[in-house]
Structure formats: structure tokens, C-alpha cells
Amino acid sequence: MAAIQKDSTETLAACSSVIRAVDLHKYYDLGGARVHALRGVSVKIARGEFVAIMGASGSGKSTFMNLLGCLDRPSSGQYFLEDVDVANYDKRELAHIRNQKIGFVFQGFNLLARTTALENTALPTLYSKLNHLESQKRATDALHMVGLADRMHHYPSQMSGGQQQRVAIARALVNLPAILLADEPTGNLDSRTSVEIMEIFQSLNDKGLTIILVTHEQDIAEFAKRVLIFRDGKIRSDHPVANRPRAAEVLKTMPTLED
Ligand SMILES: Nc1ncnc2c1ncn2[C@@H]1O[C@H](COP(=O)(O)OP(=O)(O)OP(=O)(O)O)[C@@H](O)[C@H]1O
Ligand SMILES: [Mg+2]
């Protein structure tokens, strides 16, 4: 009886992971030279977690994020995304699962210049089954969520960096992903704007969204609930954040442009 109970508990625990990586390795072949970028990474991330990834340049953070985001395949190991092992999926299958389950935010916003905030946000729905009206509704809702309802018809050049990044976050949310992946989303932003972006991430996470973000900045990482530190292609440390600050509170103590 005890054994059965233990088994079912373990199964339950496994099912609740939105991400389960098992001994991931990644090699890059560079004309004869071989880079061993990931050297056995195993980690579980449950639904609703908010994880920050830190580590020196070259330690494998982006390589790991690219695997999590189904942009690339591991050289060996297993990657379960919502309990499906996608490590051996081909490019077409990876693209499909990526569109359905993953939202991406990058350091350099990557918005289309001649396209409004609303159109930029709606772009990923082009590959979904939504009709035009449904797409517009989703994009409008996503822009509301990031506090940009009043900028919907603005072009990127008419917005600040922080506003452009918020459009990029709205675009990442528009297909209702299971996970949001952000690789140095505040890397191009000043301190206050960075905290504003973290405020949005915290509020999305409060609503249940699983978020994984790479950052070089300790004070940004502390807005997450858990920090993984990479070194030489491995996870060197994995710990919860104690006394996590609320970005909304921190913003009250920071000077604004008008100050
Ligand atoms: N496409 C690629 N081809 C060849 N080598 C690569 C490629 N991408 C990454 N690498 C190498 O793999 C290792 C890990 O790189 P990765 O980009 O994952 O590091 P990182 O932790 O994201 O660094 P940074 O903080 O500078 O962004 C490095 O040695 C890097 O040079
Ligand atoms: Mg990187």
C-alpha cells in the first residue's frame, strides 16, 4: 500500500512539472572545433514558478533557453514540456509546439517598425486558427494586460524602449502560452524601466503564468521566486529567493523622469 501511494505521489509530482529537463547536453560544431555548451543539465520547473537564470557570459544560459523554447534540439538528454518528450521532435514539430506553448521576449524587442503596437501584438496569431476579429480581441486584451491600451495604434518609433518591450510581452502572450521565456529582457533598459518590466512579469506570474528569465543583474533576479546559476554548462546553484521584493513597491522609491 505504501509503495502504491509513493508511486502515485511521484507520478503526480512529475505531472505537475511544466518543464522537466533530464541530463541535457548540447554540442556546437564549429568547423572541426566542438563546444560543449551544456554539460548535463537536469531541472524541474512547476507550473506557476518564476525562475531567474544567472551566470557568467558563455555559461550556457541562452543555449538552455533555446532548448526550453524549442528553438533548438539537445545533443542528448530528455526534455519534457508539459509531460511530452520533445527532445527528438523534428523542426516542423518543434515549430508547432513552440507556437502553441511558448512566448518569447528578447533583449532587443524585435518589433516590426512599420507596424502598430496592435498589429505587432497580433502577429503570432497569423499561424493560429483564430479569425481576424478574435485575433484583434486577443491582441487588445494582451495590450491591456501590459498597460498599453492607450498606445495600440502607435508605431515602435513613437514609443520608449520600455513601451516597446511591453508590446513585445503582449505579443508573447497573445497565443496564451504555457510558459514565457525572456532572455535578458531588461538588458537595454534603464533601472526604473527595468523594474516596471519586472512589475509586469510579477503580475502575470500572480495570474499563474510560468516565467523563466535570464538576467545578468542580481537585483532583477530577486524579483523572481527562484534563481538558477549556471557555470560552465551546468547548474551550479538552485535556490528560492527569500524576502522577494514587489516591483510595484520598489517603483515607489525610485525617481521618475519628472523628479
Ligand atoms: N550557435 C552557436 N554556435 C557555436 N557555439 C555557440 C553557439 N551558441 C553558443 N555557443 C557557445 O556555447 C557556449 C554557451 O553560450 P551561450 O550563448 O549559451 O552563453 P550565455 O550564458 O547565454 O552567455 P551570455 O551571457 O554572453 O549571453 C559559449 O561557449 C558559446 O560561444
Ligand atoms: Mg545569452
What's this model, at a glance?
The protein is of the alpha/beta class and 259 residues long.
What does it look like?
It is a single chain. With 259 residues, the chain is an alpha/beta fold. It has one domain (18-252): P-loop containing nucleotide triphosphate hydrolases (Rossmann fold, 3-Layer(aba) Sandwich). Helix content is 36%, strand content 27%. It has helices at residues 2-15, 61-68, 91-101, 117-122, 132-145, 161-173, 191-206, 218-221, 247-252, and strands spanning 17-30, 33-46, 50-55, 76-81, 84-85, 102-106, 179-183, 210-214, 226-231, 234-240. The strands form two sheets. A six-stranded mixed sheet has the order 6-7-8-3-9-10, sandwiched between helices. A four-stranded antiparallel sheet has the order 2-1-4-5. A hairpin with a 2-residue loop joins β9 and β10 (234-240). It is globular, with a radius of gyration of 19 Å. The N and C termini lie far apart (66 Å). 37% of the residues are buried. Bound molecules: adenosine-5'-triphosphate and magnesium ion. Adenosine-5'-triphosphate binds at residues 28, 30, 35, 37, 55, 57-63.
